[in-house]
Amino acid sequence: MTDPTPIEGGHVPGGALGELGADAASRKRFLKMAGGTGAAGALSALIAACGGGASKSAKSSSTAATQASNSGDVKIVNYALTLEYLETAFYAKVVASGLFKGGDLAEIRLIGRQEAEHVAALTATVAKLGGTPAPRPQSTFPIDNPAQVLGLAATVENLGAAAYLGQAANIQSKEVLAAALSIHSVEGRHAAALNKLVGRSPTPDGAFAKPASMDQVLAAVKPFIVA
Amino acid sequence: MSPRTKPAVPELAGIEVQGMTRSAFILRSTLAAGAVYGLGAVTPFVGEALAQSGGGDVGIVNYALTLEYLETAFYERAPKGLSNGVATYVKQFGAEESQHVDALTATVKQLGGTPAPKPTFGFPDGGEAAFLKLAQTLEDTGVGAYNGAAPQIQSKEVLAAAGSIVQIEARHAAIIRVQRNQEPAPLAFDKPLTQTAVLAAVKPLITGQGPPPGT
Description:
Low-confidence stretches of chain B: 1-53
Order of helices and strands of chain B: EEHHHEHHHE
Strand order of the largest sheet of chain B: 1-2
Number of strands of chain A: 0
Largest interface: A-B, 53 and 61 residues
Strand content of chain A: under 5%
Number of helices of chain B: 6
Oligomer: heterodimer
Mean pLDDT of chain A: 79
Shape of chain B: globular
Strand content of chain B: under 5%
Helix content of chain B: 40-55%
Largest sheet of chain A: none
Distance between the termini of chain A: 36 Å
Order of helices and strands of chain A: HHHHHHH
Number of helices of chain A: 7
Helix content of chain A: 55-70%
Shape of chain A: globular
Structural class of chain B: mainly alpha
Distance between the termini of chain B: 29 Å
């Protein structure tokens, strides 16, 4: 992949979303915005799909341990599945937008295909665990111009990598953990490549990647979910 | 550059994994009672140290430590005259690998083990293209090594630390690949590697056993 857009200087032109992640302050504003507005009904649906993970009070303390561990893995995998659905829908919309051509389009298609493979694998994993795969959420994404889209893509991939990292230690099954890890590092690869493309550091957290909690991630993707 | 004292995303700094903050790379001393391996886990030959499958979390962390020693030495001995973009990444990535060495060394100690000694390494001479090619092999191998070993980790704290490091290895691998006009993520799923496979990949670069730790 070559750098196709003349934004090497580190400035991402475009709207507010294009600035996301360009500095800590803008991300902080974004997270506040994400937490403060949005389609509450749709978010409720997403939280339900994720097994109620966004609510601390929903954590069961009375469930039998074995049952809890299996349902815990189902909840985590469905959470990941929902994020992968969103990523897949985002890239499909970007491809359809006609904003990208040639090598850039090919790269976006490839990343989108890989996210779709994650959807398929996670769906199968939920079924294997005896759970019901989360439904594909209805989503909406701002698709304005190439720089803004790439900036949003970078933000989404960094968030996805942090989301997997945040759940790794919570996964009970070694098989599920191995699968999650093999996806986690691919999200990290996508994030780094897109960061480079938009002039951000490939390792914005430094030597140790930071995890994100389920609450944090759900708040961040809230603007992209519609009822 | 000091990423750990100046986080790029300060609002994420308080996020916890299972009630433990990221700062718990330096593991709580209470864990030390659980796994005391000491010198016995560190075999006299690096190859055996890498190949060992036993040793629990200490063995796994020492395995990772040896790979991080290798990567750190590799970036330290980068050839002169690298292009500007590559030189910047080499400096950044080398510093990050070095921080992994420090964190893993501390982790082994907190687990009650003895950190693996730093081996001596030999890298082939060559220009930027050859350097980047080997960098790609090392970083991709690092990703596979962590992904292969992580499910065997018993401690959630150690697992969280390993996950935090492997994502950085993946980011390094992606950037090196892009520099070489390769796909940053060649597959939708990174393949986990066994210690045997990793050893085969890195053995040609290990020339000898370093001095025992603390000397």
